[in-house]
Design a protein that fits this description.
Elements lengths: L3 E7 L5 E4 L2 E11 L7 E9 H10 L5 E14 L5 E14 L3 H7 L5 H12 L12
Parallel strand pairs: 4-6
Antiparallel strand pairs: 1-3, 1-5, 2-3, 3-4, 5-6
């Protein structure tokens, strides 16, 4: 049986590119090692067709993602004639691991009302003498 299930954070925004008549999205997921707190594995993944397009549309760098797929060995010959290979996760399904509210809470918030209050307070100077009145 060849099944892989991981959860982690995307290391960059996914981008789907043409591969023949379909699209492929190659991305990396940073997965913490539960046994060693200081260790993170960076796992290469490939999503194809509609999954690739879904990833490009809805996922962003830093977002938590759940990936279900299988290990696949990619083999090729480099420009010097050497045989090369790399193991990647061939993605069958992806899912969100956090809600929109949780993702939004990670972004810096801008409180426009607080900024307006600060401006009003800075512009306010109490008048201590009637001679300061402009009329």
């Amino acid at each position: 049986m060849n099944r892989v299930c991981i959860t982690g954070r995307l290391t960059k925004d996914p981008t789907a590119t043409p591969a023949g008549n379909t699209r492929v999205c190659k991305f990396t997921v940073a997965v913490r090692d539960g046994r060693r707190k200081d260790t993170t594995d960076f796992l290469d993944c490939e999503a194809w067709a509609s999954t690739a397009e879904f990833m490009e549309k809805y996922f962003r760098k830093g977002q938590m993602i759940a990936v279900d797929g299988r290990l696949q060995e990619n083999k090729w010959t480099d420009k010097d004639g050497n045989n090369r290979s790399k193991v990647v996760i061939r993605v069958d399904e992806v899912d969100f691991c956090s809600s929109k509210a949780e993702e939004d809470s990670r972004k810096p918030q801008f409180d426009q009302r607080a900024d307006e209050r600060r401006t009003e307070e800075e512009d306010f100077r109490p008048i201590t003498d009637d001679d300061d009145l402009p009329f």
